[in-house]
Description:
Elements: H1 3-13, H2 17-28, H3 34-41, E1 49-55, H4 61-74, E2 79-84, H5 99-107, E3 111-116, H6 125-139, E4 143-149, H7 154-158, E5 164-169, H8 177-181, H9 184-187, E6 190-193, H10 201-212, E7 225-227, H11 236-252, H12 255-282, H13 285-298, H14 304-316
Parallel strand pairs: 1-4, 1-5, 2-3, 2-4, 5-6, 6-7
Helix pairs in contact: 1-2, 2-6, 4-5, 4-11, 13-14
The chain binds guanosine-5'-triphosphate (GTP) and magnesium ion.
Amino acid sequence: VARSTESLLDSFRVGDRVALSRIITMVENDHPDSAMILDALYPMTGKALRVGITGPPGAGKSTLVEQLAFQMRQSSLKVGIVAVDPTSPFSGGALLGDRVRMSRVSLDEGVFIRSMASRGSGGGVAWKTLEVCEVLDAFGTDRIIVETVGVGQSELEVADATHSTVVVLVPESGDGVQAMKAGLMEIGDIFVINKSDRESAELARMALESALELKQTDNGWRPPVVSTIALEGKGVDELFHKIEERLALLVSSGRIEMRRRECVRSKIAGILKTRILEREWRRGQLPQLIEEETTKVLRGASTPYKSAEILLGRLEAPSDR
Ligand SMILES: Nc1nc2c(ncn2[C@@H]2O[C@H](COP(=O)(O)OP(=O)(O)OP(=O)(O)O)[C@@H](O)[C@H]2O)c(=O)[nH]1
Ligand SMILES: [Mg+2]
C-alpha cells in the first residue's frame, strides 16, 4: 500500500472532501489499493440509508434530488448524492429555475454530489454503486440519494443497491404503461408525479393510483403517489416525509439489518471464491490440467462442464492434500 494512500485515508478520517473525492475515484476505477481502502473504511460504515431515484429522461429527477437534499439538510441530515450515468450534469442547466436554493445545496458542506459511469465497471453497476455508497457512508452521511435514468437495465440493478426506490414520472407517463414496461412499477415503493404544474397532472395521478392498487403491499406498505413541482419545491416536504416513513419501517422491521447481513455474506463468499481459485492456481497443477482438459474438449472427448467436474474431483481428492 502506497504511503500516499495512507495519508489520503488520514485526511478522509478528518473529513477532508478532496480526500473523499479522490478515494471515490480510486474505488470507481478499481485502483490496486481500493480493496485495502474499503477494508479500512468498513468499520466506519453502517449508518447511511440509501434511496434510489429513477424515472424517464427529463422527468425532473435531478431537480427533485437537489430539493430533497435541501429538505434533508433542514433536518440536519448529511447527504450524499450519486448520479449513475447522468445524461445531464448536476448543478447545471436544470437548476436555472431555483438558482439560489440550489447553489446553497451545492455549496453546503453537508452535501456531497458525485457522478459515476456504469460503463466498464467490472463487478456490475450495483456492486460499484454499493462500494461508492460505502465510502460516502464511512464519511458520515446519513442519507445517500442515487439517481439513475429509468430506461435500461442498470436502474433495475441499482435498485438492488438501495434500500428504498422512488420512481419519478411526469403527467405524460403517468398512466403507468411506460413505467410498467420498463419494470419501474416493480421496483418503486414511492411514486412521484412531477411537473404537476401541467394540466393533466391530476388525471395522471389518479390513473397511477389505480394501477398501483394491483401491486402487493409489502409489510403493510402500499406505495403512495406524491405530486410535486420540483422546480418550485412544491410537494418535496411530503415526499421527504414519505421516504423517511418508508425507511423507518424498513429499519423497524429488520429489513435493513437483513440486507446488510446478506451483503456481508456475499462479500465474504465473493472474496473467498477469488482467493481459493488463486490459491489452487498457485499450487501449480491447475493451469496444466486445464490445458489437458481443453485439448480433450476440442477433440470431442469432453465438454467444458464435464471437464470442470473432473478437475473439481481431482482438487478434492485427499491424495492432493
Ligand atoms: N414544468 C416543470 N418543469 C420541471 C419540473 N421539474 C423539473 N423541470 C424541468 O425539467 C427539465 C429536466 O429536469 P432534470 O431535473 O434535469 O430532469 P432529470 O430527470 O434529472 O433528467 P435526466 O437526468 O437528463 O434524465 C429541466 O428543464 C427542469 O427545469 C417541474 O416540476 N415542472
Ligand atoms: Mg438528471
